[in-house]
Hints:
Layout: E1 40-47, E2 51-57, E3 66-70, H1 73-89, E4 96-102, H2 109-115, E5 120-124, H3 141-156, E6 165-166, H4 171-202, H5 216-219, H6 233-266, H7 274-282, H8 289-300, H9 307-313, E7 318-323, E8 326-332, H10 338-354, H11 359-367, H12 375-397
Parallel strand pairs: 1-4, 4-5
Antiparallel strand pairs: 1-2, 2-3, 5-6, 7-8
Helix pairs in contact: 4-6, 4-8, 7-8, 8-10, 10-12, 11-12
Amino acid sequence: MGQARKVWHLRRFPHQPTRFSMSQPNDTKKSVTPLEQDNTMIAVIEMGQASWLVAGIVPGLERQPLKKLGSGEQALFQLLQRWRNEAVHAGRTIRRLVVAYEAGRDGFWLARWLRARDIEAYVIHPNSVAVSREHRRAKTDRLDTELLKRAFLGWLRGEAGHCSMAAIPTIEEEDARRPNRERENLVGERTRIMNRMKSTLARFGIRSFKFTLRHADEWLNDLRTAEAASLPANTHAELRRDIARLRVVREQIREIEQQRLQRIEQAAPSEKGPHAMVRLLARVIGIGVETADMLVNEILSRQLRDRKWVARYAGLTGSPDESGKRRRDKGLSRAGNARVRRGMIQLAWRFLMFQKNSALAQWYRARTADGRGGARKTMIVALARKLLIALWRMVTTGEIPEGVSLRPAVA
């Protein structure tokens, strides 16, 4: 009381951080470019297999045009040029043209094609667009374009929460993921074939036959059922076809693995990129080339902003459910890359076996020492999240996780 109130000026503290939240250059939740709606033409596309529905916001036109096209990029480009000419005839100058569509079966080729022709193109995460929660909501392509248009317009204004954009990879980045994903499909096919053959033989009381033998198709002639009879003719022919199919799948898996090793070995030791990251991760005892290649091409080679983005992309973050006095967690969000999430949880269990003296393994054992039921499964997810962040720092900054044992580097 009685003393003048002190007023601090920001110029006296030039090194003090301000409290204003600034958008990051790679922020996909809102645009960092100011929107000038008078000279910006906006278009959204509802893409189907046979046709595309294009909705636009054209400066100078009172109507909001809507046009159905055949599924082709040239027709889309001509439509955008026609709308641009209509805006020019209305007295407006179009300095910016932005197009967006939902991620789906068509992938990212259209966005790359449009960007090569000086058109801003974005791909919207489908799960990030808010929809009506009515039990039977109306859904048509026209209503979907209106929904996309509202969400995209809010994103362009820089308002967070309307939608989020997917990072558009290059052709090389997309192609680098194909071998690992193809191998995953082939491994699943191999498992299905073997399970089908086992169930076929189980109907005749045969349980010890090995389908992976080199001459398994020849050994079928000597098989006897539990009733001391030979296999029926149709069943015998079916198993021969399944064994031939299994042999082809195994050869394709072996070919993918050999080609991947050749690519890694042919890369120069001084090269910086995905191959160098794979070689570095493969030095960690407990991580093989397959896991290292999957992690690098699916997540670690991406330009992620910080550790929170890394965990969120893998879907290893929680889903809080809070309302009033209720406070609980619904478990993993499962909103990220399912391949990375499955691979990291499997790697976390393997990490405890091969890296027992590491700081992360000791952290896990200290929190599960009481032996409570379900604690180990809950904490393994936390360990997978911490391990993924540690591996991300390892390939980006070269920081080796504390106590982790490495294989000697190959010259």
